[in-house]
Amino acid sequence: MRIAALLIDIDDTLLDDAHATRHGVAALLAAHQLPYTLDDACQCWHTLTQQHWLRFERGECSIIEQRHARLRGLFQRELSESEAAQAFEPYIAGYRSNWKAFDDTAAFVAATAHLPRVLVSNGHLDIQQRKLAFTGLDAHFPHLLTPQNCGHAKPDAAIFEVAAALAGVPLQQCMVIGDDAVRDIGAAQTLGMPYFHVDRRRADGGLLACLPLLA
């Protein structure tokens, strides 16, 4: 089947979110003298993020509440909301100053410019807009869907249906491109959509490896 549009994830697909996160965690360790190695702290932060981001996706807490819950888990002690907000500032500074696109992103963006493209992310709308502006990718992607402006989160079929409608292409002719095995790839498989799994641990897992599928 001909691929007529792309529905593309952002974090750890176009942008190296793991890199930015690691710098954010390093800033937390330096500011608060926490008893972790950087690798151990990053692993703990990853586990806490998975736990509390799911709560945010389900609407059980706000973006700020899940942020503070992660911090309390890393610190292993209670913090008031004001204490948590202040303690989180080094992370925010380290994280935001290290947003960057992967080395293959520019070439991928150029090579797929002839196709309708919609960004589909479970990240918070304001933060994702800031990332795109910071990295200059906002000029290439007129459409960005998140739970805040769509009302649905991946892997819910509805967010992909809205994305396909924005692209003006039938759902089954849209390729999902992303790194998440459940939110991106699992959703595409359930919906019978073509997909490409970005996994840079594999030699053939970068963005450019999907280009032959689009020819």
CATH secondary-structure class of the largest domain: Alpha Beta
CATH superfamily of the largest domain: HAD superfamily/HAD-like
Structural domain tally: 2
Relative strand content: 5-15%
- Major sheet: size, sense and barrel closure? 5 strands, parallel
Please tally the helical runs, counting DSSP H or I stretches of 4 or more residues: 10
Per CATH, which architecture of the largest domain? Answer: 3-Layer(aba) Sandwich
> Any idea what the shape is?
globular
Helix and strand string, N-terminal first? EHHHHHEHEHHEHEH
Uncertain spans, ≥5 residues at pLDDT below 50? none
Pfam families: Hydrolase (PF00702)
Organism: Vogesella aquatica
Protein name: HAD family hydrolase
Keywords: Hydrolase
